[in-house]
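Repro:
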Amino acid sequence: MFLRYNLFGIIWSLLILLMGLTPGESMPLTNIWDVLSFDKIAHFIVFALLTFLFILGFSKQYTFLYFRYNAEILATGISFLYGLIIELGQTLIPERGLEFTDIMANSVGVFAGWFVFYLIYKI
């Protein structure tokens, strides 16, 4: 039952892992407008969707009642830590590095995913 409701969140998190730890081009931050670049918007959207899928999956499953009743806080915390771990893991990948602005985009996306869930299901 847990896997049934969380399959999309798990698949999405594996895609994030694949994209996040793939060797790529490392470009230094050159000006303030890079903070609002497509890369940061992609981080925001990817983690907003991850958080939304995890909250939805955790709250619908019946196998682990702790996850069901604490879905929002657990999904938010797991998504935030997952983004942080991936960013730290990028330091081990050639041509990749830790970017504080990526961590911020991930974090804002996590809270946006929670907010969207709240707007849809709680109001």
